[in-house]
Amino acid sequence: MWKLSALLLAFVSCAAGLNILVTNDDSWASANIRAAFDALKADGHNVLLVGPAIQQSGKGGTFVLPTTNITHPGGEFDSIPAGAPFFGADSQNGDLFYFNGTPSATVTFGIDIIAPKKFGSTPIDLVVSGPNEGQNNGPFLYTLSGTIGATYTAVERGIPAIAFSAGNGTHRSFTTNTGEPNDPANLAAQVVKNLVAIIAAGVNASQERLLPLGVGLNVNIPTFGPASNCTAPPFVFTRLTGGATVNSIAIDNTTGLPVEVDLVATGVNSNINGVREDPGETPTSADCFTAVSIFSVDYDAPERIARPIQHRLRNSIRSTQF
Question: Which pTM does this prediction carry?
């Protein structure tokens, strides 16, 4: 189990002035996204927030654009009145925007429409998605999570991106955050700030990328804080596979109706890619560790697996007439 050295944090000199686009799937008015925005701004970054107008969890990478203005009952937590335009800025802070689309569409709107007005001709250095209200562990959740959907949408566009998901999962408005350091939203925001500082350390973002092209990070923060036994979860390198679950179906003996049951399945946990000695992010973040998984958006099987299959099927495929 490889830990990102806690000592490194003491020596990190934050690369101030990164152009960061913050987004999520829990809405632009959630406590977590606003706390992350504030923490990154306080650390010297140039931050723009573009989040969905309403809760958009579980949308994965679906790309749905608005076809009307904001409809009844309005934005999440009454943050936008019904009838308002399909996008807009906070009246008190022109760096906070909502967009009435899915997370993938929202981050794309931020990239193509809002960011050029904020950052000018300079590129976005990093997209930060989250922290989500609840964890998103494993390949099955990778395809379902709107938080991760916004992240891999940005990676597909060539922009380094990180998805953050927090075990402290209460869906709540930013207006409920009193600013106490031990507020779960503020604790998660400090994790975001610290990891961004680690990634930015020693990197001149105007000359090199923070992450390789086509690569992003999936970060799962455990439930932690004063109300738990976990107070300072260290970063641990993990992989998406390993102890991950998928949905299976059983019949409830009482109701006779189908129910969803988590299943640790062989297919989703096949260790095809990734660093083999790294633990899976699911069991890791169930303990007092923050799981950091590196993913790519190249879904092709590795050549060592693809070549033998091609060799076995090549003659049959060539001779088949359609």
Answer: 0.93
State yes or no: is 285 an active-site residue.
no
Angle between helices 31-42 and 184-200 (to 10 degrees): 40
> Of 100, 129, 116, which Cα lies nearest the Cα of 40?
129
Q: Which CATH class is domain 6-319?
A: alpha beta
Per-residue pLDDT, 129: 98
Cβ-count burial of 128 within 10 angstroms (0-12 exposed, 13-18 middle, 19+ buried)? buried
Give me Rg for the CA atoms of the chain. Answer: 21
Residue with tokens 């399909």: 86
Class of residue 117 by CB neighbours under 10 A (exposed 0-12, middle 13-18, buried 19+)? exposed
pLDDT of 318: 73
Say which residue the tokens 């800025």 belong to: 89
Summarised one tens digit per residue, pLDDT across range 205-215 is: 999 999 999 99
**Active-site residue, selected from the candidate residues 30, 57, 79, 165:** 165
Contact 128, 20 (CB under 8 A): yes
CB burial of residue 149 (10 Å; 0-12, 13-18, 19+): buried
- The domain segmentation of the chain, as residue ranges, is 6-319
**Which residues have C-beta within 8 Å of that of residue 204, sequence separation ≥ 6?**
15
What's the rounded Cα separation, in Å, for the pair 207 and 209? Answer: 7
pLDDT at 6: 41
pLDDT digits (tens, 9 = 90+) for 87-125: 999 999 999 999 999 999 999 999 999 999 999 999 999
pLDDT < 50 positions in the chain: 1-15
